[in-house]
Amino acid sequence: MSPQRIGTADGREASNSSVDLNLSDDRAPARRVSEFEQRLFDVHPRMRRLAVRLVGSEADDVLQESYISAFRAQSQFRGEARFETWLYRIVYNTCISHLRKYRPSMVSDLELEFASGRADTARSAATRVDLVAALGSLGPSHRAAVLLVDAEGLSYEETAAVLGLPRGTVASRVSRARKILRSQLTEKP
Q1: 49 near 151, Cβ under 8 Å?
Q2: How does strand 5-7 pair with strand 13-15?
Q3: Model confidence pLDDT, tens digit, residues 114-146
Q4: Under 8 Å between Cβ of 144 and 54
Q5: pTM score, whole prediction
Q6: Which phi and psi (to 5°) does residue 52 adopt?
Q7: Which residue segments constitute the domains of the chain, with CATH numbers given?
Q8: N or C: which end of the chain has fewer CB within 10 A?
């Protein structure tokens, strides 16, 4: 880029040879998108599991909405928690908003898992059906707590940050959800 001439307050021209006036650096947005895509690539399977378990067959739409929201809110990420925890919170909030609006059937969870090409034995498929049904019987707040802790391996503190709840409330919800699941899964003949 050749130096441009700019006017000064007193009407003289000044050279900007040391100042780059190209304010629309086309590489910066592409770099931001690329970095964000890489971070999403690393955590997408965990985000998708949570979304599928919370909203069923609408998971892909909810994830797309979540990722767009997260990309737009990148500047608000302060780094006080891990990126994954911050993104879990966005995905969780979007799922809860979706549930409040549409209340999708939880039966579709199983359909999605089978559609993904996983081969299960008859016994593990039956267990999976029972588990999906038991998880579907939990309220969204209990389901999210137990899934984040038991299925995703988040600590109680991380789960509390994702759900925006005190650690004690998370522990209580996980305990209650486990008790309900245990009861429903052991009732089977």
Answers
A1: yes
A2: antiparallel
A3: 344 444 444 454 566 677 778 888 888 899 899
A4: yes
A5: 0.57
A6: -60, -40
A7: 29-186 (1.20.140.160)
A8: C
